[in-house]
Amino acid sequence: MSRIRSGRPIHRRGASHEYPHESVRSSRSPLLDGAIPEERLPFTIVGYTLPCEKHPQRNEDCFLIEQQSGLMAVFDGVGGSAAGDIASQAAKRATLQGWKGALGQIHKGRHARRILEDCDKVEFCTLLQHLIEHADEMIRTDGVKEAGTDDLATTVAIASLCRHSGNNEYSLVYAHVGDSRVYLLKKDEPLKRLTIDDGLLGKLVENEMVDEADAHRIDQAMRADDLTDAELSYFRLRGGITQALGGPFPPDIHSDQIPISIGERILLCTDGIHDNLTDLEIEAILRKAPRNAAARQLVEYALLRSREERQVIIRAKPDDMTAIVMTRRY
To answer: Do the beta carbons of residue 177 and residue 245 sit within 8 Å?
Structure first.
């Protein structure tokens, strides 16, 4: 396994292992009895996932949507580990368990599934960090027991909405480990990536071997002749990640929060989406697609790209693909 200067291993994706996994599905969380109807919620959250065509019965990605309480997360089991699908599912279960427990404490047991309120009174970044730490621990215990090996890991990108007390303003709190990403799309601005991958290109920038503009250009390349030989080697290694949940080191969790205005969209996705599609392509799809179809269209376009000839389009990469799109409605 290759390493970089930080001493953390780079997990390589794409290895194939035969483990049962959930079937292909598109999902919106079902409403609970007595819950607010979806059409009255100020946001819509829709997710879609497909397994890699090389192993259609096993999806190492999974996602979590709690529509009523405004939680969303994507998990991408690391292909270089022996049981990435088990890791991602264990992380999902642990996250949901931790979220329900946190909501019960915050709301004191009443309306425990509703959206979080009063952003200024609860340290929501810390809450998401605790959820990720809990997921990491569950992978190392329950996940290891289920898989029969300690060689399992997953990335995570997670976000939740909270409403500011006394008005109709909302904030999005987000956190991630690995190279699953969170994006923001505003009405009159380019697509903005809110997260920085725990990967080779980020480490090259950190070590001042490549500047940020060049790292972005390398990451967005379509053809080999757009890059120098050295840049092409960086591009081909950009799928290596420097940390994950369940990895050999406790994760360094990145978190932040931003205001979310009416009409804005948030995308959470695994690398099967952003490795195949450029940011410009993602933006075009997010701008045009209806809110209930945007996640599915992103996955379908990424799937089409993955089937292209890689000697022509260097982005083409068969992979599991998962997207969640949140739209602020009013």
So the answer is: yes
Under 8 Å between Cβ of 205 and 217: no
Q: Where are the domains of the chain?
A: 25-34+42-198+243-328
Bridge-based pairing state of the strands 154-163 and 116-117 = parallel
Q: How far apart are CA 227 and CA 203, in angstroms?
A: 19
Name which of 126, 197, 115 is nearest 164 in CA terms. 115
Q: Where are the beta strands (DSSP E) in 115-215?
A: 116-117, 154-163, 170-177, 181-185, 192-193
Tokens of 300: 């379908």
Beta strand extents in 36-126 (DSSP E only): 43-50, 61-66, 71-77, 116-117
pLDDT tens for each residue of 233-244: 999 999 999 999
The answer as to CATH 3.40.50.970 being correct for domain 25-34+42-198+243-328 is: no
Give the model confidence (pLDDT) of 89-105 as tens digits.
Answer: 999 999 999 999 998 88
* Range with the poorest average pLDDT among 101-115, 160-174, 257-271: 101-115
Cα distances from 150 to residues 83, 131, 140, 247, in angstroms, run 9, 21, 7, 9
CA neighbor of 160 nearest in space, from 208, 108, 206, 98: 98
The pTM (predicted TM-score) of the whole model is 0.89
User: How far apart, in whole angstroms, are the C-alpha atoms of residue 46 and residue 267?
Assistant: 10
The strand ranges marked E within the chain are: 25-27, 43-50, 61-66, 71-77, 116-117, 154-163, 170-177, 181-185, 192-193, 254-260, 265-269, 321-328
Cα 293 to Cα 105: distance, rounded to the nearest angstrom: 35
Cα 232–Cα 233–Cα 236 angle in degrees, nearest 5:
85
| Rounded CA separation 172/189 (Å) | 18
Is the CB of residue 90 less than 8 Å from the CB of residue 132?
no
Cα dihedral 312, 317, 321, 325, rounded to 10, equals -40
CB of 78 within 8 A of CB of 241?
yes
- Radius of gyration, CA atoms only, the chain: 19
